[in-house]
Amino acid sequence: MSKEARFRRGVTTAVAAAAALTLITGCSSGAGSDASSSGGDVTIELAQWWEPELPDGALRTLMDTFESENPGIKVKLLSGPYASTKEQLFAGAAAGTMSDVVGLDGAWVSDFAKQGALADLSTLMKDAKYDDSELASTIKVDGKTQMIPVVNFVYPLFTNDDLLAKAGVTAPPSTRTEFETAAKAVTALGDNTSGWVLPLSSEAPNGIQNDVMSWVWSSGGTMLKDGKPDVTNDDVTGAVKYIKSLNDAGVIAPGSATMKEQDKVEEFTNGRVGMMIDSLSHIDLIRKSNPDLKFSISAIPAEDGFTGERGIPYASWGVGVSASSKHPAESWKLVQFLMNEKTNSELSTLANAFPGNTKSVPDFSSSDPLFKQAFDIYSKGKPANEFVGLPVAEQLMRLFDEQLQAILQGDESVDDGLKKAQDAWVGEF
To answer: Which range is the signal sequence, renumbered to this chain (predicted)?
Structure first.
């Protein structure tokens, strides 16, 4: 089986990661309800955080194409940063005011499904007589399809070339020892520079998935045993002890306890940190914000002496339809458009991602050269994200985050903190 096929098979069992921005109004249903009562165009809202991470105007151009192919349907884009999107989405889900079509982070899907906030896409596909054989994956909760991964991203190590060179580091680190050495060298430059940035905000705890557990997966480790919590094992314990050693050495950017993902990206983009673990989706955003920044990507460092396949963290931009939308059929047409072979190829190219349609192929010739490098990194490793598919995945991240912060602050030992995290996780399962 090819690496790409293995990736898609892995994603098939995953709850992919992507998020949604919701419009909170005084209405009791989705914003599509504001369509003209006189028989005019139907307006549906697509709420997501994708637009700021794509080239300027790219998503709007795709929506213009959709509108030209579907006369009578207009699309209003609601866009915002990941964290803001998340906060508004949860509020909208509780109030029943979600937008018609929503970008989704798979870590939230279980919660939304319990609230009945998402429509069953299986029913919408059946009503539309849609053939789902080209979809790389569909995410189900209690037998109902709640989300479709649109495009999939890997999370490599980003390094500031100029800072590392100034610190005497000639190549991106490949092992934990090399990473620690590079982080200390960059921090020693002074002028408020730090070696690594680690976002641990409990409001948006996906840093536990992307920036902490990635150290476990990169060395072939696991946080589960037979599908159940196992965060006291040697894999997780070793990674947490390593992160604590970096914290004790003062190489982590200050303010990590309250940082969110966008804060991490801003610190790197502004040239204040030497290294971060991040999504390929931010490449274009970094280039737009700081065109002069020279940076590279590489595989996340593994334990010294590790020779196996390195786990490559991944996440996805997923899509769903609000259960409160007054225009489910029109909303499904937009989802179908996003997942057709042509659109999905174009979107995956624009986003520096892997497509969610099995027949779609990214155009490496027109994409950022780092995308091809990322594909090479992926080809040498295996996709890894054990949070996908877990119930209350975000709550598990938050519970682990609480203990990790206590460990880093010196309030409890690594072993005691992980034991508390293990007990908390078992309680959630």
So the answer is: 1-30
Q: Give pTM, 2 decimals.
A: 0.72
Residue-level length of the chain: 429
Q: Would you give the end-to-end CA distance of the chain in angstroms? A: 33
Question: From residue 286, how far is each of 109, 269, 330 by CA, in Å?
Answer: 29, 6, 34
Q: Is 395 exposed, middle or buried (0-12, 13-18, 19+ CB in 10 A)?
A: middle
Domains in the chain, CATH or no CATH each: 3-153+315-381 (3.40.190.10), 157-277+391-428 (3.40.190.10)
Q: Block means of pLDDT (10 residues each) for the chain, length 429 residues?
A: 44 36 35 47 95 93 98 96 86 91 87 91 96 87 90 92 97 98 98 96 93 97 94 98 98 96 96 95 91 96 94 89 96 98 93 87 80 81 81 91 97 98 95
- By CB neighbour count within 10 A (0-12 exposed, 13-18 middle, 19+ buried), where does 344 fall? buried
Give the separation between CA 213 and CA 174, rounded to whole angstroms. 17
